[in-house]
Specification:
single chain, Stationary-phase Survival Protein Sure Homolog, Chain: A, nine-stranded mixed sheet, two-stranded antiparallel sheet, 5 helices
């Protein structure tokens, strides 16, 4: 099976190399394609630097991954995934691995994560994916993350081929023998950090980003990782919510707009 390994921390991230080695050790045909610079907070944006319709890529060599094709791509993680699905970097991947992110991706704030955005983009194309993050912005124990990633990848590869699951995993930055285990978790109602508006001027607004001091909700990814557990949460790509009653909004079959549409034809001399 072909695998795409990407991230939002950039091609030089230590976590990216660690995750790529996990994929190689699992026997996958690996291509590493990651942003040539940090793209954190990109969500699933399809952003790329193009010239004359060309997406710019730069061949790289990653430590300990001789023989693995690695590219620094001038694009967001989601765009890279989108391009990979359309065979821009070789055969389309059968699985997408995103990370290992330096810093947590917990709570509803996963909406903004480029790491998660790449995984969800794979999901929209019917490809299973794994997004993994370490809770520390400067990880010390990436070997712990690698152990959890290998276990999750093995489970994912055993699933039916038509089941495109997204696993979001967060791992505490602790030695392997101090990790309490892997637990399912629901998303916390907030992320690891919060933004606050400070000074509001005529031409500027100051913003402060700080770690949240709110009480952690039991059973959530934020609470469990703080307590020494690795967590796994299954995510879904954007989808409709069918149980909302919108009967008072939509038409019943015949036009109910009060005024007919007016077609205006303009001419220029």
């Amino acid at each position: 099976m072909h695998a795409l390994v990407t991230n939002d921390d950039g091609i030089d991230s230590r976590g990216l190399g660690t995750l790529a080695r996990v994929a190689v050790e699992a026997g996958l045909e690996v291509v590493v394609a990651a942003p040539d610079e940090e793209f954190s907070g990109a969500s699933a944006s399809l952003t790329a630097l193009e010239a004359d319709g060309r997406l710019w890529t730069h061949a790289r060599r990653l430590e300990g991954l001789s023989g693995v094709r690695a590219l620094g791509v001038e694009a967001s993680p989601a765009f890279i995934t989108f391009a990979a699905v359309h065979e821009a970097f070789g055969p389309a991947p059968g699985v997408v691995l995103s990370g290992i992110n330096h810093g947590p991706n917990v709570g509803q704030a996963v909406l903004h994560s480029g790491t998660i955005g790449a995984a969800l983009t794979a999901r929209t194309h019917g490809i299973p994916s794994l997004a993994i993050s370490c809770t520390s912005p400067e990880p010390v124990h990436l070997d712990t993350c690698a152990t959890v990633a290998a276990r999750a990848l093995a489970w994912l590869l055993e699933r039916p081929g038509d089941e495109a699951i997204v696993l979001s995993i967060n791992v505490p930055d602790v030695p392997p023998d101090e990790l309490r285990g892997l637990r399912p978790a629901r998303l916390a109602s907030f992320g690891a950090v919060q933004a606050e508006v400070g000074e509001i001027g005529e031409d500027h607004v100051t913003m402060t980003i700080r770690e949240t001091d709110d009480e952690l909700e039991p059973g959530t990814d934020a609470a469990l990782t703080a307590d020494g557990w690795a967590t796994v949460t299954t995510l879904a790509a954007p989808c409709e919510v069918p149980d909302v009653d919108i009967a008072g909004l939509v038409d019943s079959g015949q036009r109910s707009i009060a005024a007919p549409w007016e077609v205006v034809q303009s001419t220029k001399e």
